[in-house]
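Re: folding output
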Amino acid sequence: MINPAVDELAELTSVTKACELLGRPRGSHYRAKQPRLHGPKPSRPRPPNALTVAEQAEVLEVLTSPRFCDKSVAQTWATLLDEGTYLCSMSTMHRLLRAHGAAGERRRQATHPAKTKPELLATAPGQVWSWDITKVRGPQRGIWFQLYVVLDIYSRYVVAWTVQAVEDSEIAKTMLEKAMGVHGIPQAIHADRGTSMTSKPVAQLLLDLGVDRSHSRPRVSNDNPFSEAMFKTLKYAPVFPEAFGSLADARAFCEDFFGYYNHEHRHSGIGLHTPASVHHGTATEIRAQRQHTLDAAHAAHPERFGTRRPQAPKLPQAAWINQPSPEALIQTA
């Protein structure tokens, strides 16, 4: 449409000026005037310095020979050059191998089977625990204390914790032993793949007690969500200090914090109950009392609630780490 207008105006001025006046890109004008070529693009002309068919066959024969079939192109090219033989450049060797489907890594490669995704299900307190270790800043730069925390994934109740100057498998073993002496032995304990979590003392303890061991996949933080979420609640709390003056200060703070966390903190993941309430079985009674209060409020002022009656938050039926597949649930039923 616009090309004839450009051509007419170009007779009075020039194509460049006509395109500029009409707002038409000059390249678009020239492309529109050229006939479109249909069919395959013309093949690239053969370079005059290209290897002949016989020379290509010779190079391929050398590269795939028993002597060089397991060597890289660079190794082959350098070895031949040391022997006074030059067949072609390394890039040409790569190009010939690609053309005949023989390119790629020739050495044996290490293969690592994928780690099994942990799938744990808890339908009541005391079934599955999760534990981890996090660092908290000490009084000086480079000084860190190690905070060990074990919690029940169903109730979110912290069943054990300790703050130590170092990370040590014996400390972890002692902490788990004491926790199981107070709260009973769980069916499974989940942790990441830290040195203490996979250590022989901890592994032997769980084996002796018949507790299933579960570990996160490498570099997958989502496999340990309950411990990670609890640490975030701790470190993002307004009262959490930037640094602790001593190991005693860190222990005193954690004593207060975990007391609050277990007995006062209303957790959104457990129907806004406290972990202690869910862990010790009083949450059902508390929810009934909440519902009674809401029913009374609705009876007094139903117009404030619209068409829906207020409902107290429900308790979870289950908690899991990577929700098990239906097939796994059938097998474990």
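--- second protein (sequence, then structure) ---
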Amino acid sequence: MTRGRRGETGMVTAEIAVALPALVLVLTLGLGAVAVVTDQLRCVDAARVGARLLARGEPVEQVRNEVARQAPDGAEIGFEVGPDSVRVDVSAQPPPLLRAVGVSARPRGVAHAVPEAAP
């Protein structure tokens, strides 16, 4: 009976050594997914704010500063101001955590607004 126990010595260590990298990978992907969703929401919110400000007639540089403040770091901001509508496009790079794993999700927010007619 003592012999059976000696043969199992180190089994738990081996199981942990195999399971730990898988656990770290799952945790990394989970945290990366949360980061992408957070950046997506920030892009959408920033685009909405920008479209609203442009539709009100705010100066473009002021709108760009406000959108950049609300968007994720390093986000690309684009404006399209037409006679009847305004479009703001905000997109960001995926978090470094996911880029390291090879995921290419790109958070993006687009908002349209129609300026109110002057009374």
